[in-house]
């Protein structure tokens, strides 16, 4: 069906920069960032899995967030690195649709998991007596399954709608991966339905989790302020500080990429913002959680000590 709808077999990806020389000079930097991202997030998953003290809802969702960050970066950066190294800046039509699907799925999962972690902190701080019931293993598994189902439905909807379009000329995608908007600009079909679904579904999966996060912290902050002892308030808020840092970085770059006014928007700014939330943010997450969280520090130290004992 896809082959009949489109007369092109591949697209050209411009890359992170319009200059091939600049892309070559940035190759080493992005390769290092990619490897650090994979290593850091993998360590977070291993540390949480090996430490029984971290088998809690908060760290359950953090481990899933780390897995999703690895997927988000791999779905975009790996192809870009291959193109720069081989100097062959093309992606097949089917490969473009697959990349779009995984990028949308992992990107939406990032947003949903951040909302789930905010809700977990709200229950832990504002409803501590009900925490074990509200955030039971069964509830956490249900939330996880719901996140995966919803994001897959959204990603599949966008991908199937894109597959129905015709692309009459092999064009250049003004991006370093197959994002929806740059690909839609190359279509010679009517894209009104696609644009409407981007607005409806894209706005929903972006705004609804963000509202959940804001609402959770509207309740969390006063609850912290009501704690009379300074030590108690500091300990309560310290569990949220790492999460808040990631939320600010993720949504700050995401909003700048997709909610920027047309008067100041440009392809260069869109690429820069996309690079921040698909490349830089997943790399920063392990550092933020390991450096600002004492439990994670202990778990990582224990993990490295176990590896040293095993190797000796």
Walk me through this protein's architecture.
The chain is mainly α and 312 residues long. It has one domain: Rhodopsin 7-helix transmembrane proteins (Rhopdopsin 7-helix transmembrane proteins), CATH 1.20.1070.10. It is 77% helix and 3% strand. The protein contains 11 helices and 3 strands, in the order H-E-H-H-E-H-H-H-E-H-H-H-H-H. It has a 3-stranded mixed beta sheet with strand order 2-1-3. It starts with a helix and ends with a helix. The N terminus is likely disordered.
* CATH architecture heading: Up-down Bundle
Spatial separation of the terminal alpha carbons: 57 Å
Mean pLDDT over the full residue set = 85
Helical residue percent band: over 70%
CATH superfamily: Rhodopsin 7-helix transmembrane proteins
Main β-sheet, in a few words?
3 strands, mixed
Q: What string, H for helix and E for strand, traces the elements in order? A: HEHHEHHHEHHHHH
The gross shape turns out to be: globular
Can you give me a brief rundown of this structure?
This protein is mainly alpha-helical.
Q: How are the secondary structure elements laid out?
A:
Layout (H helix, E strand, L loop, with lengths): L1 H4 L4 E4 L6 H31 L6 H30 L3 E3 H34 L4 H4 L2 H27 L8 E2 L6 H5 L7 H34 L4 H29 L8 H25 L2 H18 L1
Parallel strand pairs: 1-3
Antiparallel strand pairs: 1-2
Helix pairs in contact: 2-3, 2-10, 2-11, 3-4, 3-10, 4-6, 4-8, 4-9, 6-8, 8-9, 9-10
